[in-house]
Amino acid sequence: MKTIKKIIFLLTSTATITSLLACGDKKEEAQNQNEQNNNQIEEGNNSSNDNQNNNSSSESNVDKKYKKEGNKIYFGSYPQNHVTDQDKIALLNSKVTALSTSTSSNDWTTYEYFIEGNVESYTFYKDIDLDNNGSFDYRGVYFTKYRPKFYTQSSPEEKDAIQNDFGYKVKTVHWFSYDTIEWNVLKEENGKAFIVSNIVLDNQTYYPTEESNKFDHNQGNGFANNYELSNIRRYLNNNFYVTSFNSQEKEIVQTTNVDNSNKSDVENPYVCSKTEDKIFLLSESEIIDYLKTKEERIAKGSDYSKCQGLVGTDSTCYWWLRSPMFNNATRSTLVDIDGNIDKGGVGSNYGIRPVCYISL
Fold first, then answer.
1. What 8-state DSSP symbol labels residue 50?
2. What are 261-268's contacts with CB under 8 Å, separation 24+?
3. What tens digit of pLDDT does each residue of 97-154 get?
4. No. of H helices and E strands in the chain?
5. Pairing state of beta strands 331-335 and 341-345?
6. N or C, which end of the chain is more exposed by having fewer CB within 10 Å?
7. Strand, coil or helix: what is 33?
């Protein structure tokens, strides 16, 4: 991977930091105003994106909001591939008037990531509608510190930073193209498909604390590994859902009554109630049912997820499941880099493979 070598803008101090959800809302408003101009995935009209999926459908999907090829569905879009073309980078940089700082957003949005247990504004993003068609084409990412692997740690030195290992440097704008999301069909029945993203699209902490006792968080009271109250569930059903789908695509994403009960013979006191979700994570039992082998579970991360500090290598990474560990209130299940079902502290930066049901 190549490193973007220059920043052409100076840091200034003017506006307050915009909230993560607000940026998503702006995207949805722009899409609603320009529905007729949105890219039609089924026609493969995604030419503005770098490194796009050039897949020709074997069936006619002109009346669909997705494209289906065998066991694959192409549906929605998300920042994924790193832009390396220098002319494109210069053009995108020209759309930015100033970079964000810890005290001034300058029209960038903070990710609100943690360092040493505290939310800090050190990583920001900005979406660009380059062709003015009402939907975003590129996302710029800029950070003033490297993100630690774990929420209680301090920002690492460059030589120890995961982002640096993947070629992403501090105080440099890195651009990523919005590309069509490739999904694997896990199950298809009764006019619905149960789908999981083919790669890790992002990485988030499950919940940014590891207190072992019950505590108040996200408008509820529960343990640190309570999926219903987790930050990761909020991210999936707010930021990811709003960012990834236009108004037409949202029509076929179904609200699912997600079963979070214990499916093991071992009693688990940390499971939560059923949840009503558009987007969610796979459970441990679903992994066993649908991705039976370690080879099937191994997933690589997108360039965008690596820029966020994804723990892994170029070809594989850790990614979260929604099932809590049965014997530790601060641990949840995950898939490790070898495809094994494992556990990890909820404050760690592991990958996200969203799942959902869509109407066919």
1. T
2. 262/326, 264/326, 266/326, 267/326, 268/323, 268/324, 268/325, 268/326
3. 888 776 777 889 999 999 998 999 999 999 999 999 989 999 999 999 999 999 999 9
4. 9, 19
5. antiparallel
6. N
7. helix
Residue with tokens 């105080």: 171
Q: How far apart are CA 360 and CA 75, in angstroms?
A: 11
Beta strands in 83-172 (DSSP E): 109-110, 113-115, 118-120, 123-128, 138-143
Could you tell me the two tokens for 126?
A: 């900005």
pLDDT given at position 7: 31
Q: Which residue type does 256 have?
A: T
Residue-wise pLDDT tens digits, 336-345: 999 999 999 9
Distance CA 102, CA 138 (A): 23
The neighbour count for residue 228, using CB atoms within 10 Å, is 17
Give the contacts of 287 (CB within 8 A, at least 6 positions apart): 297, 321, 335, 341
Place of tokens 């030195």: 157
Contacts of 84 (CB under 8 A, 6+ apart): 2, 50
| 78: β partners | 179
pLDDT tens-digit readout, 88-105: 999 999 999 888 776 777
Residue type present at position 19: S
pLDDT average, residue stretch 58-80? 82
Number of Cβ within 10 Å of residue 219's Cβ equals: 7
Give the strand pairing for 275-277 and 256-258: antiparallel
Question: In whole angstroms, what is the distance from residue 295 CA to residue 340 CA?
Answer: 9
* DSSP per residue, 140-161: EEEESSPPPSBTTSPPPPGGG-
3-state secondary structure of 192: strand
Strand extents, DSSP E, the chain: 67-69, 72-82, 109-110, 113-115, 118-120, 123-128, 138-143, 174-189, 192-197, 202-204, 215-217, 220-222, 256-258, 275-277, 319-324, 331-335, 341-345, 350-352, 355-359
Whether residue 177 contacts residue 137, with contact meaning beta carbons closer than 8 Å, is answered with yes
pTM of this structure: 0.81
First-to-last C-alpha distance (Å) of the chain: 37
Residue with tokens 């968080």: 217
Q: Is the dihedral of CA 216, 217, 223, 224 positive or negative?
A: negative
